[in-house]
Amino acid sequence: MSPRKIAVLGSNSFSGSDFVDLLLEDAQNEVLGISRSPEKGPLFLPYLRHTNPNFKFHQLDFNGDMPQILQVIDEFAPEYIVNFAAQSEVAPSWVHPDHWFQTNTVALAQLINHLKDRKYLQRYVHISSPEVYGTCEGNVTELSPMNPSTPYAASKAAADMLLSTYYKNFDFPLVTVRATNVYGAYQQLFKIIPRSVIYLKLGKIIQLHGGGHAVKSYIHIRDVSRGELAVMEKGRVGEIYHLSPDRGYAVREVVQTICEAANLSFAEATECVAERLGQDAAYVIDSTKARSELGWSSPIGLTEGVTGVINWVESFWDEILKQPLDYVHKA
Question: Which residue among 38, 74, 130, 320 is least crowded, i.e. fewest CB within 10 A of its CB?
């Protein structure tokens, strides 16, 4: 069997790096990784555990290196491209909304306009976000209308609409994934689950925005990566697939689970603060389509997943102490 060539854009992101890690478990996969940041070491990149020679990384930025990116992709000629590259934080997108649109929409337009004519490409998997729906209430399916609440969500919605025009007019081999709140070991330290574990170890108070009542669909990163692989291999061109767990959790429930795993008092470890601007009240979507069409499931429960994060923090504690715990914006 000949190698399967897959390009992963945003390969140093949390989701991208786990997807690369999953791909490298199969020796038949030849993987190209492209990300704007340098490879960050084993604290954040699980795929570094592989000695597999079938991975090549290029540090290139969508907003400054697009000609080089297009050249590297053309030389590799992948059958599959999976694009995780995006500005993805919600709150900072209010400060520099143009940065979010530049990366998530304008640079993407340059990429797709080039790829539409490339005969080597069999499937383009676009990693979108349920944020495009705004507050997710009721039964939110792939046919639900987009109603973004933040500049980040608006930039992703614009990207999704742009891509759909290329599918309609050029038969571009687009498949779209919208996964809910991913978490797990190797995640950025400012995210609520790793940050809560770290704060508990440091004896710092965990702030719950709006009391932590916003409901989100926390799902383990490896369950999502398996779903993205199923979409890449078996998803129908032109379709959108949701990847979400069986139920949503209020943020305070998740933090309480972490406190229980650490044998600490939730009441003593947390405090309530004001809600974030544009925070959606609920973030729950229906993933029946991926489960029925692709045979996908999300077997890793919250307690198991949180335990994995705690073990990762313990293993890399000395290195974590050297890292910033707050989001650092890069234009």
Answer: 38
